[in-house]
Every structure is written in structure tokens, then in C-alpha cells.
Amino acid sequence: MTKVSGSDLSSLAAQLADHDIRYLRVGEPRAEWFPVKPPELIAALSRHTEPRFREALISLFIRHPEYASFVPSIAASLDTAAGEVLRYFYTAAVYLQRFWLGTLSLYMGDFQLLPDFFGQTVFHLPAPDVYYGESGLRALADLQKQQTGFEWLAVYHSVMKLLLEQFRLNYDRQTG
Q: Which residue has the higher pLDDT, 25 or 147?
């Protein structure tokens, strides 16, 4: 399998669409691309310089909770910065999945809950089930804001809004 080129936005957007994350589009023609395995896609997104592609990790894990099994080994294999990106966005997905559990169940049916690999042990945050994930999500956003100065809670909710809108449009298309 061919590795995802981190600089080819069109190719990466096509890879995400292949994994049912279709809300990311780029202004260039769709590039030729080759399917990659989930660990390769996760690593490419974690290393990417474009924020919206890194943030797509949240949607990827919520849409495919089965990909969680790859996360610890990928995080350990990445350089420090990319590993941290993966740990933060995976942990955000853990908390957001709990927060939006009812709504996600309407669109996805039964699915496995993402295991908490980093929230409690690495970041020392509340358990994912405390206040339906909201406590942990807010604490994670505060921790990330201390490091970057950026307001991450709004980013997390923005990603969820995009994913839920994609689910709603798919549902409307199927039932309409």
C-alpha cells in the first residue's frame, strides 16, 4: 500500500472520505490516491501541518471506534509533537463520544466505546463517564490551552458539529 502524502491535501481528503469522513474538501482537483490502512492514515493525520486535518482525527475515531486498538502503538512510534497531537485528539474523541452518546447512537446504532488510554493516566483528567465526558473535555481543553494559548473547547465542538451534520445529511438522503 502507498503511504499518504502529508502535503497532498486532496489525496488526504479522499483518504478520509474512504473512511466515511466526508466533510473535508479542498480547493484543488481530487488527486489520484491509493487506499491505506487505518494506522497509516492516523499517523499521517497526526503529523499533518494543516489543523483541520489533524482535528479530523476526532471524527475518525468517533466514526471508527475499532481504530482505537492502533492508537497506543502509533502514539509511541511518532515523534514527540505528532504523538502529542494524537494523544490530545484521541482523548477529545473519548470524551466527545460520551458527551454525544445518545445522538451518535441514533445515527450509528450500537458501537464500542473508545477506551481511555491517555485521559486519566497521561493527562490526569476525570474519567470519561464523569458528567457524560463534559468534565474531562473541559479539563483537556484547559490543559491544551495552557500549552498553546488557543481555545480548544470550541474546536472540539466545531468538529462534532461537522460530523453530526454529515450524519444528518446522510440520514436525510437515506430516508428522504
A: 147
Query: What are the pLDDT digits (tens) for 9-39?
Result: 888 888 999 999 999 876 665 556 678 899 9
Give the number of other Cβ atoms within 10 Å of residue 83's Cβ: 17
Q: Is residue 96 part of a domain?
A: yes
C-alpha angle 101-107-110 in degrees, rounded to nearest 5: 60
- The number of domains in the chain is 1
On whether residue 22 sits in a domain, the answer given is yes
d(CA 95, CA 77): 24
Q: Is residue 2 part of a domain?
A: no
Which residues lie below 8 Å from residue 105, measured CB to CB, with a gap of 6+? 111
Angle at 7 between CA 3 and CA 10, to 5 degrees: 85
In a domain, 79, yes or no: yes
The vertex-86 CA angle with 85 and 90, nearest 5°, equals 120
Q: 33: domain range? A: 9-175
Record the pTM.
0.91
Neighbours of 149 (CB within 10 A): 7
